[in-house]
Design goal:
- By secondary structure, this protein is of the alpha/beta class.
- The protein has two domains: 270 residues, Aminopeptidase (3-Layer(aba) Sandwich); 111 residues, Alpha-Beta Plaits (2-Layer Sandwich), CATH 3.30.70.
- It has an eight-stranded mixed beta sheet, sandwiched between helices. A four-stranded antiparallel beta sheet has the order 10-12-8-13, covered by helices on one side. A two-stranded antiparallel ribbon has the order 7-14.
- The model has no long low-confidence stretch (mean pLDDT 97).
- The structure holds zinc ion (2 copies).
- One zinc ion binds next to loops.
């Protein structure tokens, strides 16, 4: 099958893709409780004559074809705790839960790819492993759990491909790049402990509000004076809570924030610096500090060889003009875990309607991606599998 033929087949199943996507969109489920979605996927695969099994409680894994080589295709299936405000006729029926990251489309496109691959099973020259992964949006990430449960073994997966919808580019485009494409997001929690006193007698206590304020400012210095300017990274304090009156210096202040990075070495060094500097700054004010750094996903780093292959696939499917360079983002994505084990690449399917210059971002309650992008994403998955197995 040529890329053109694959795209034609994907366009041919558009009405089905649309129906599936709308069904999934109406019935979103949160991370790690995707029980109905899981059943729905198994049912669709079974109608295509594909046997599947449950992995990691709410994930689904299946294979198509036979041979020595095995290529993985991954879609995430979970939704977010967001109240949908799109006004779509197929909007969420599950109040307060919404497919606001496009995982409804990811799931649909992988089912679509399964249909085309199954039809061409005899000529695949290898095995395609379909991975419908739960819990992308929540630590520790469904990918890490599935890997622990052996999703990359039996048969052993040689390389893996994944995709995400991308509101930053219009429908009809594919964006991708070798190397780091998404950052490692770590969660930061601080409790600064002082000694409460009357606000008119600050010398009798230790003021955690002043210590917290100095610390927040100091963190900015960490980013400008300790970080190599060439290195990408961001440290943002996103929450500050402490005190509830005008005349009392409180006992403690709580801060929350995020650290995002691409480079694992720098990330580890930052964790150390945050610890050392936080303690030193608080000590100046007679305060103590408790620090919790919850490590998020690793950075997503696209393997050069299979990314080159994928860029070629994209050019053949959507043309050179519509194959864009993806500018790395500091979003987190648990697809990163696969890439730590085997060659992996992750691309972005443009979903901005052609007539719009901008659209709501991922995780926005008004996100409404163009469904026209689905045949392209489906064809990208099929092409990735077929061309990889061709060698
Ligand atoms: Zn998301
Ligand atoms: Zn996502």
């Amino acid at each position: 099958m040529t890329e053109k033929e694959i795209l034609e087949q994907a366009k041919g199943i558009f009405p089905k893709l649309q129906k599936l996507r709308r069904k999934i969109h109406s019935n979103p489920e949160l991370s790690f409780v995707e029980f109905e979605t899981c059943k729905f996927i198994q049912n669709e695969l079974s109608e295509l004559g594909i046997e599947s099994k449950v992995i990691g409680n709410t994930g689904v894994v299946a294979t198509i074809g036979k041979g020595n080589q095995c290529v993985g295709l991954r879609a995430d299936i979970d939704a977010l705790p967001i109240k949908e405000e799109t006004g779509l006729e197929f909007a969420s029926l599950n109040e307060g839960v919404m497919h606001a990251c496009g995982h409804d489309m990811h799931t649909t496109m992988l089912i679509g790819a399964a249909e085309i691959l199954k039809k061409n099973e005899d000529s695949l020259g290898g095995i395609v492993k379909l991975i419908f992964q739960p819990g992308e949006e929540k630590l520790p990430g469904g990918a890490s759990i599935l890997i622990e449960e052996g999703v990359l073994e039996n048969p052993k997966v040689d390389a893996i491909f994944g995709q995400h919808i991308y509101p930053g580019e219009s429908e009809g485009t594919i964006s991708l790049n070798s190397g780091p494409v998404m950052g490692a997001p770590d969660e930061l929690y601080f409790t600064i402990k002082g000694t409460s006193t009357h606000a008119a007698q600050p010398h009798l206590g230790h003021d955690p509000i002043v210590a917290a304020s100095q610390l927040i400012v100091h963190f900015q210095t960490l980013m400008t004076k300790y970080k190599d300017p060439i290195e990408a990274g961001v440290l943002s304090i996103t929450s500050i809570k402490g005190g509830n009156s005008t005349n009392i210096i409180p006992d403690d202040v709580k801060l929350m924030g995020t650290l995002r990075s691409f480079n694992e070495q720098w990330r580890t060094e930052m964790h150390r610096l945050i610890e050392v500097n936080s303690k030193a700054v608080c000590e100046l004010y007679g305060c103590e500090i408790e620090i919790e750094i919850k490590k998020g996903y690793p950075p997503v780093v696209n393997d050069e060889k299979i990314t080159d292959l994928t860029i070629n696939n994209a050019i053949n499917l959507v043309g050179e003009d519509n194959t864009k360079v993806f500018e790395p983002k500091m979003w987190g994505e648990d697809f990163a875990f696969y890439g730590k084990n085997i060659p992996a690449t992750f691309w972005f399917v443009g979903v901005r309607p052609k007539n719009l210059k901008t659209m709501p971002a991922l995780h926005n309650s008004k996100l409404s991606p163009s469904e026209n992008a689905m045949p392209i994403g489906t064809a990208m998955l099929v092409t990735a599998a077929i061309n990889y197995l061709k060698g």
